Amino acid sequence: MKSTSFSEDNYNIATPRSEFLEIENLVKAYPTPEGKKFVVLDNVNLSIGEDEYISVIGHSGCGKSTLLKIVAGLEKATSGSVRLDGKQINKPGAERMMVFQNYSLLPWLTVRENIRLAVDEVLKNASRPEKISIVNEHLAMVNLTAAADKYPDEISGGMKQRVGIARAIAIRPKMLLMDEPFGALDALTRGKLQRQVLDIWENHRQAVMMITHDVDEAIYMSDRIVLMTNGPAANIGEILKVPFEHPRDRAAMRNSKEYFELRNHALNFLDRYFTQDE
Ligand SMILES: Nc1ncnc2c1ncn2[C@@H]1O[C@H](COP(=O)(O)OP(=O)(O)OP(=O)(O)O)[C@@H](O)[C@H]1O
């Protein structure tokens, strides 16, 4: 693992390799029972490259999930625009797959059938043998071949999340959207699954937007970290460039001066906003 040069100038860099996802002047407000507006996101601007891994961090309630849901097409923006590959997003689409914290598997289907269902719905023109091979390939990718015929309530939380990830990537989306994908897992399982997701991403690079509350996870996994200000009317406070090339060696990275500086910078940002909120 090489670390690229890093200095205070690396902070606030917002120049992705290309503009694949473009969020411009995004505002999201909900109507209140009193007939007023509750502004959640106020003028968010962000571009993500087509093979870039982005993490979004911010205090609870600042609007991270709302932002992700707008990109997923599950929520509509009040104003502003979100484009993927030049096309305006206004509804869910198979080119943007979402992985949720709570797994969201269908309990009456086996692991294999949960993945197959997504493949059937999206890859309609694929032949039966092609579909079987895609499902098998992705079961193997997340080490679930032996558990393929088990039902969700027969497997662990970490395994359920691996099914969710395999299901999302099996249909080859242009962008992966993950809402605290490791949040419900114990530390050991979380570490293993982070590595597994990175292995897959390093072999099949794509745009990723991941929400997390964990600064170490964000540094380990992403190319840039988006720090959000507190709500209401939250927006992007800073964007930090992570100065380590993939594949990353977690232990070596953690011992570096750059890691220490970046981690402290992110934590100080979050502390500052937390203090303001008190
Ligand atoms: N459908 C809705 N109607 C009204 N307000 C909403 C709705 N959905 C979310 N909100 C409000 O928008 C704000 C942002 O919520 P959101 O879930 O996006 O935050 P978050 O940063 O993801 O929080 P957490 O980290 O706790 O998951 C919150 O104040 C929430 O109460």
Automatic annotation (TrEMBL):
Location within or outside the cell = Cell inner membrane
**Top-rank taxon:** Bacteria
| InterPro entries documented for this protein | AAA+_ATPase (IPR003593), ABC_transporter-like_ATP-bd (IPR003439), ABC_transporter-like_CS (IPR017871), ABC_transporter_ATP-bind (IPR050166), NO3_transporter_ATP-bd-like (IPR005890), P-loop_NTPase (IPR027417)
Where mainly found? membrane
Kindly state one GO CC term assigned in the UniProt record: plasma membrane
Q: Does the UniProt entry include the keyword Cytoplasm?
A: no
The residue stretches assigned to a coiled coil in this entry are none
- What range(s) does the ABC transporter domain occupy? 21-255
**Pfam family name, one:** ABC_tran
Swiss-Prot/TrEMBL keywords = ATP-binding, Cell membrane, Membrane, Nucleotide-binding, Translocase, Transport
Which family, according to the similarity comment?
Belongs to the ABC transporter superfamily. Nitrate/nitrite/cyanate uptake transporter (NitT) (TC 3.A.1.16) family.
What's the name of the protein? Answer: ATP-binding cassette domain-containing protein
Which lineage is the organism of this entry classified under, starting from the top rank?
A: Bacteria, Bacillati, Cyanobacteriota, Cyanophyceae, Nostocales
